[in-house]
Amino acid sequence: MKAAIISALALAAVANAHFTMQYIWVNGADQGQNTDLRVPPNNNPVTDVTSTDLTCNVNGLSGAGVNTATIPAGANITFEWHQHAQRTGEDAISGGHKGPVQVYIAKASSTAASFNGQGTVWTKIYSSGLINPTSQQWATDIVNANGGKHSVVIPSSLPAGQYLLRAEIIALHVAQSYPGAQFYIGCAQVNISGGGSANPPKIAIPGAYKSSDPGITVNIYNNLKSYTAPGGAVWSG
Ligand SMILES: *[C@@H]1O[C@H](CO)[C@@H](O)[C@H](O)[C@H]1NC(C)=O
Ligand SMILES: *[C@@H]1O[C@H](CO)[C@@H](O)[C@H](O)[C@H]1NC(C)=O
Ligand SMILES: [Cu+2]
After folding, report:
1. Is residue 31 part of a domain?
2. Which N-terminal residues, if any, form the signal peptide (predicted)?
3. Residues 6+ apart with CB under 8 A from 221
4. Range of the structural domain that residue 40 is part of
5. pLDDT at 133 over 80
6. Total domain count for the chain?
7. Which ligand approaches the C-alpha of residue 181 most closely?
């Protein structure tokens, strides 16, 4: 009985232990809390893959009042996530959240701040999922071990201009039925200087993700041997 109560409490703690993107770093330089970011009203996940909240989280269709960071082509961007407005004293994203980490980029039609990210505009530039099936180590375990951080190098062949960068952590601990998968999304506004002339493949978010995707509705506690994240292949520049 006592064990049952404790595990029920543990489950409740996992369910409530949500998180948001709070910082980006540009080539190792911390830009400051909530700077260059579209900040959602709370740390709850998005669970409806057809919602425009899937683009840049709740209230994320515009970045009015949000600074846009100028970054050099080929910059190394580090995203940093936390459960609450504190960097220490708790797991960054809570160990119960298991799943992939992905990053997408979309070129703004005019300014990044006014761009809503709708349509077939997103290019996947990073994806990490089930890293080790034997130990069941997920990309999220690495993010937790790194104090909430993961990094991506922006392909230097992308043209100069203003972009939204969209990082996503999908927590799959209750994903065996839909809706269940939890989408944690953070969007940063950047202005790439330098760059090239690549025209990468693109998908729509929402649009490309389906409730039936094997990376979205999945029982991860069933000795999973491999995992396919939604959204297709990474474009490496
Ligand atoms: C990007 O920056 C992070 C944090 O400073 C660092 O750990 C990582 O090695 C860098 N990646 C590359 C490819 O330079
Ligand atoms: C974007 O960067 C370019 C340099 O490539 C600069 O001239 C321009 O002012 C920047 N725009 C914004 C909005 O920061
Ligand atoms: Cu949570």
Report:
1. yes
2. 1-17
3. none
4. 2-204
5. yes
6. 1
7. 3
